[in-house]
Structure formats: structure tokens, C-alpha cells
Design a protein that fits this description.
Blueprint (H helix, E strand, L loop, with lengths): L1 H9 L6 H4 L30 E6 L9 E3 L2 E8 L4 E8 L5 E9 L15 E2 L3 E5 L4 E6 L4 E6 H5 L13 E3 L2 E6 L19 E5 L6 E6 L16 E5 L2 E8 L2 E5 L6 E5 L17 E3 L2 E5 L6 E5 L4 E3 L4 E4 L14 E3 L2 E6 L4 E5 L6 E6 L11 E3 L2 E5 L4 E6 L5 E6 L13 E3 L2 E5 L3 E5 L2
Parallel strand pairs: 17-21
Antiparallel strand pairs: 1-33, 2-3, 3-4, 4-5, 6-7, 7-8, 8-9, 10-11, 11-12, 12-13, 14-15, 15-16, 16-17, 18-19, 19-20, 20-22, 23-24, 24-25, 25-26, 27-28, 28-29, 29-30, 31-32, 32-33
């Protein structure tokens, strides 16, 4: 498979592939790009056929499961008690090993819940974060190691929508970004002072603050809101954390949060409704960022220093290419990007350095696709609002199968499919499925 060669030469990630390749420890997987080295993954199944096990879930959530060896960690709501839960399942049997109630309250708007951020684990601790502020860490036996509330400790969140950003565990630090409005919105946020956006580093073993970096922004109103997650990246020996939101893409020093470079020429008129959802993804020597709504995708050259202008842009998706993504984060696999467009109802394979579209297909069915794609074993796994999983061949875009995994359609399914230990994990609104041997 070319993924290991490509990453090793062009996009060296600091976590060794041999130690993490079989697990899915964070939202976008072992390589932080929606892909894995897993092979022999299934391409056809049903709700009962080729299912290792399925477990009932207490409520809806957009968070993906994370897997480390024989443990599956899941954030969830509880529809009965109107609370937020941290769950751990046995990967072999589907048995619920432990469950903790973290906080009361499930949502503040009809579109999302506080349980949208995915948990993260480093094999020693697992960290859960929720959009109303609670952050808690457990050992694998379910013992709470520490707990804190980000809103109580660093100020109330100033978001029009429900805040969601998944925590990141990387090289001994726990990272969280909060990209928010500078003034209160609907009564949320500081009323007597400026609401700063920031990048935060904590000790994963204790929860203590290591550093906090204030991230400035010239964005206006809702455009200051970022629902993205930080992504680690290394290029020519320089380690960075990639952060996108507030009209800008920035690279930060993981040791202290210092800003290394900044690019943000995509909103010169400061449109005020450009809240951002897709996280950045790196491949070859470019970093892909998706402008909101139906606006283009930008490929920014790696290795920048200081403020960057349009010369930093490798390519922009023109209207002819029809590449755009308002919600799903693209994936990188086998030397190419895979872009799922919720607004253009398409899936495309794209060359990183030129933006050339290798192939593009229309996503099947009538339901919207907002969950980010999984790419592994020569296949792309998508899931739409109706809980229909679509499996697509990476080589030519041929649709291999379409499988319904959800019978109850009271709420849209938003959680991405993940792969670990030779199996797929599919979260619907009512159940968690483990697919494969």
C-alpha cells in the first residue's frame, strides 16, 4: 500500500504507524487524515449479516467511537435522563464494561447535542469532552483520573450554535481549540470583556494547564466560530498543529502554541456568516482547507513562515471542478485526497499538488451526507443522515454496496464510520455495530 510510503516521505507523522495502525485512537484516526492501514475490511453486510455484535445506545451523538486494542470508547447522550455519558465497550463481545454520567443537559439547539466531540486515547487514558464544557479523563478500567470544566476555567463559550471540537492527544499533550465570537451571542460569552479564541494544552495525566495561546482573528460575527479540530503535521522536520477557523489557517508550535505562520485570503470582504466545520487535512506538501457553504477548497503550500499571501496557494477548486465541502472533512489516502461534498452531493478523488480530479461521482440516495469519510483497504466508507452506508472503490469511484443500518429516522445520523483491528464500527442513533470477523 502506498500510504505508508507517501506519509513517510512527504508527510511524516510523528506517531509510528506500526504502533497505531491497528487502532483508531482519535476522531480522524491514527494518521489524523481519515485513513488507516487496515486491510481485509468488509464491503458488504447487513444489520444482521457479518455483524460481530451490536449494542444498544442510550441516545444520539455525532461523536465517532475510538478504539484501542480491546476497548471501544463512546461519547453519548442519554435520552431518558437528559444527561451526557462516557461509555466503554468490550471490542470482542460488545459488552458494556463501564458507563459514567458526566453532566446534565443534552442540547441547546435542535441540530446538535453537546456530545458531538469524539473522545481521544493514547493507550493509557481516554479523554471525553462535551460542548457545554466538561472534560474528564478515565483509565481503561473506568476510574476517573481528573475532571474540569473548560467554560468554568477559561470563560463561557460564545457560539451561536452548539460548540463542538474534538480533543487531540499528541506527543504527551492534550490539545483543545476554542475559536469563538469576540462578543456575546444570545447571552452566551463574557458581557464585560473580550471573548478570546485560543488553543489550549493540558497534561493528559492530570488535566493541568501547560499553556494557553490566544489566537487573534479579524473575522466578523459568526465567521469567528470554528467547529474544527486541531491536526498535527510535520513537514521537513518542523512539527506543527494545524488550526483553521476565524477566516484563517494557522500553524502552531506544539511545545508552546506560538504561531508559526498564517494564511487567510479567502474572505477579503469579511463575510459574517462563514462559520467553519471541516478540519484541515494534509497530504504530499499541501494542506487542504474547505471554505464554507458552496465556496471553493484551497490547497495551501506547506512550510510557510509568518503572514502568507496568495503566493502560498498551490491551487483553488474552480467552479468547473465543483469541489466544495461545508461539513465533511476530506480524507487523504494512497497519495490522493478524497473530498465528500454535502452541498454538491458528490465524492471526488483529487491530486494533492495540482487539484486534478481523478474521478467524481454523485452520492447515491436522497439523504444528506455530513459525516466525514473513512478511506481504507481500497474502499471509501460513507454514511448519510438516513443511516445508509455506501462503500465506494478508491480506484475508480465504483459503488460496491449500499447498506441500511438504521430503521429509526427521528434524528439524522452524523457519526463517521471508523475501522480498527480488522473491523468496522458504525454508530447510528440507536445502536453501535461492530462489522466483520
Amino acid at each position: 500500500m502506498k500510504l505508508g510510503i507517501t506519509i513517510g516521505i512527504c508527510l511524516t507523522l510523528t506517531i509510528t504507524m506500526s504502533s497505531w495502525a491497528e487502532d483508531w485512537p482519535q476522531w480522524r484516526g491514527p494518521f489524523f487524515n481519515g485513513s488507516t492501514n487496515e486491510t481485509n475490511l468488509p464491503s458488504n453486510w447487513s444489520q444482521t449479516k457479518n455483524i460481530a455484535w451490536s449494542a444498544e445506545l442510550p441516545g444520539i451523538s455525532a461523536a465517532t467511537p475510538v478504539v484501542w486494542k480491546d476497548k471501544v470508547f463512546v461519547s453519548s447522550t442519554d435520552a431518558t435522563s437528559e444527561s451526557l455519558l462516557a461509555l466503554c465497550f468490550d471490542r470482542n463481545t460488545g459488552d458494556l464494561l463501564w458507563q459514567h454520567t458526566v453532566a446534565d443537559g443534552v442540547r441547546k439547539d435542535s441540530r446538535s447535542t453537546y456530545s458531538s466531540p469524539s473522545p481521544a486515547t493514547n493507550g493509557k487514558v481516554v479523554v471525553f469532552f462535551y460542548g457545554n464544557g466538561p472534560m474528564v479523563a478515565y483509565d481503561f478500567g473506568g476510574k476517573q483520573l481528573w475532571s474540569r470544566n473548560i467554560q468554568e476555567d477559561f470563560g463561557p463559550f460564545a457560539f451561536g450554535w452548539t460548540f463542538s471540537s474534538s480533543p487531540l492527544l499528541f506527543e504527551g499533550k492534550l490539545y483543545l481549540q476554542v475559536l469563538q465570537r469576540d462578543v456575546p451571542v444570545d447571552g452566551r460569552g463574557f458581557k464585560d470583556r473580550f471573548n478570546h479564541s485560543y488553543l489550549l494544552a493540558l497534561d493528559p495525566g492530570t488535566g493541568e494547564k501547560i499553556w494557553q495561546h490566544i489566537r487573534p482573528s479579524q473575522a466578523k460575527k459568526e465567521s469567528r466560530e470554528g467547529f474544527t479540530s486541531p491536526v498535527p503535521f510535520e513537514w521537513q522536520g518542523r512539527k506543527e498543529l494545524l488550526v483553521v477557523g476565524g477566516d484563517d489557517l494557522t500553524g502552531h508550535n506544539p511545545e508552546n502554541g506560538a504561531e508559526l505562520w498564517r494564511w487567510g485570503t479567502w474572505n477579503p470582504t469579511r463575510i459574517g456568516h462563514w462559520r467553519l466545520v471541516p478540519s484541515p487535512v494534509a497530504g504530499e506538501d499541501v494542506i487542504l482547507v474547505c471554505a464554507p457553504k458552496r465556496d471553493p477548497i484551497y490547497a495551501v503550500k506547506a512550510g510557510g513562515k509568518g503572514p502568507l499571501d496568495d503566493n502560498a496557494i498551490a491551487w483553488i477548486s474552480t467552479s468547473e471542478k465543483k469541489l466544495s465541502s461545508d461539513v465533511p472533512t476530506p480524507a487523504f489516502y494512497d497519495g490522493d485526497f478524497f473530498v465528500l461534498s454535502d452541498v454538491r452531493k458528490s465524492l471526488s478523488r483529487v491530486k494533492p499538488r495540482t487539484g486534478k480530479v481523478v474521478w467524481s461521482i454523485r452520492t447515491p440516495g436522497n439523504s444528506k451526507y455530513e459525516a466525514s469519510p473513512l478511506v481504507a483497504d481500497g474502499k471509501i466508507y460513507l454514511i448519510n443522515f438516513a443511516g445508509e452506508v455506501v462503500v465506494v472503490a478508491t480506484v475508480d469511484g465504483k459503488i460496491l454496496s449500499e447498506i441500511s443500518m438504521e430503521d429509526s429516522l427521528e434524528q439524522p445520523v452524523r457519526s463517521s464510520v471508523i475501522a480498527a483491528r480488522g473491523q468496522l464500527f458504525i454508530r447510528t442513533n440507536t445502536r453501535l455495530f461492530c462489522v466483520g470477523g
